[in-house]
């Protein structure tokens, strides 16, 4: 991970996952202190912009890339997303502490379990978006 000030973040999410699409939509509606670029993981654009990433991994675990090349995955990526949001920065600061880390990891484990349950019941075919831009909740 490269050091430096973060001016923007790219959030790579699984566009075939209803939970991920719901979270993407939620992030897009929040007031952002650091601009979030929301991009489907393993898409042609993601592969072009981030050729060094293991793109199969970005489909399994939330991945956030900073504008200076910083890289976060899993619970760290979750915390960085919250940190970018005006109403959730204080929560992110706490989740990044030793006392808060178990809660960040628990949130990621819970999201992964819900994601697995929803994806296995989704009507979307592999490669087909699970929701469109208007999706307000996972189906």
Keywords:
single chain, 139 residues, alpha+beta, 4-stranded mixed sheet, 4 strands, 45% helix
How are the SSEs placed, and which strands pair?
Elements: E1 9-13, H1 18-29, E2 36-40, H2 44-49, H3 55-60, E3 63-66, E4 71-73, H4 74-83, H5 89-95, H6 101-121
Parallel strand pairs: 1-2
Antiparallel strand pairs: 1-3, 3-4
Helix pairs in contact: 4-5, 4-6
Question: Could you characterize the architecture of this molecule?
Answer:
The chain is 45% helix and 12% strand. It has 139 residues and is α+β, with helices and mostly antiparallel strands. The protein has a four-stranded mixed beta sheet with strand order 2-1-3-4, with helices on one face. A hairpin with a 4-residue loop joins strand 3 and strand 4. Helix 4 runs antiparallel to helix 5 (89-95). The protein is globular and about 35 Å long.
Mean pLDDT: 85
Question: Strand content of the residues, in percent?
Answer: 5-15%
- Separate helix tally: 6
The amount of helix comes to: 40-55%
Major β-sheet strand ordering: 2-1-3-4
Question: pLDDT under 50 segments (min length 5)?
Answer: 126-139
Q: Summed up, what is this model?
A:
By secondary structure, the chain is of the alpha+beta class.
